UniProtKB/TrEMBL annotation:
Ranges of residues in domain Transglycosylase SLT: 88-181
Family that this chain belongs to: Belongs to the transglycosylase Slt family.
Keywords: Signal
Pfam families named among the record's database cross-references: SLT
Annotated signal sequence range: 1-19
Organism of derivation: Pelomonas cellulosilytica
Name the record gives this protein: Lytic transglycosylase domain-containing protein
Length: 200
């Protein structure tokens, strides 16, 4: 019976990605250079901590998120690497990891190879034009986990800066639905599932 219910759940799950069509906008040379530098900087996804309390908080977060993500990513090593990279790239871009997890949930359902009808790719549903604007032009790299998460976080940070910190408007711009509530509200609702107890 459980197996039939699980199979029914899989069949009912949406197969397409929910991404809208991010809009290719002209970038000032300084912005293009800054974004390109952010994408190009190589760094290991595993953080180092001088403060033992910060390290303990990170390990607690990693353990809790791993448990929550277990049904969606069953292989332990893949799940841990994914979460380490989410945390690293989110912090690197000045974003909350819970926000990035919520966005990934809404955009791709945690599917690495998701492709939307608009052509957006990977976990964070990055449009291929970004690889031409600020990358090396190789859109296939958007299926590489760290590359996709780095592009997505850098792009969301860019939109937050354009929108002067207004997350609602930045999320709408990220999805190509600026000013409409459906997408930001979906990401905010998903984000709540990835908060630790006591976080708001």
């Amino acid at each position: 019976m459980r197996r039939r219910l699980a199979l029914a759940g899989l069949l009912a799950a949406p197969l397409g990605a929910r991404a809208g069509a991010q809009i290719e906008e002209p970038l000032a040379d300084a912005v293009r250079s800054a974004l390109s530098a952010s994408i190009a900087q190589a760094a290991p996804p595993r953080p180092r901590f001088d403060d033992p309390l910060a390290r303990e908080a990170y390990l607690r977060w990693l353990s809790e998120m791993s448990e929550r993500l277990k049904k969606r990513k069953t292989e332990t090593q893949i799940r841990i690497e994914f979460l380490e990279t989410i945390w690293y790239e989110a912090k690197r871009a000045g974003l909350e990891p819970s926000l990035v997890l919520g966005l990934v949930q809404v955009e791709s359902g945690f599917r690495k190879y998701a492709i939307s009808t608009a052509g957006a790719r990977g976990y964070m549903q990055v449009m291929p034009f970004w690889t031409r604007s600020i990358g090396d032009g190789d859109a296939a790299r958007l299926f590489h986990m760290q590359t996709n998460l780095r592009f997505g976080c850098v792009i969301l940070r860019h939109y937050l800066d354009i929108e002067k910190g207004d997350l609602f408007m930045a999320l709408g711009r990220y999805n190509g639905s600026r000013g409409r509530a459906e997408y930001p509200n979906a990401v905010f609702a998903a984000r709540r599932q990835w908060l630790l107890p006591g976080e708001k």
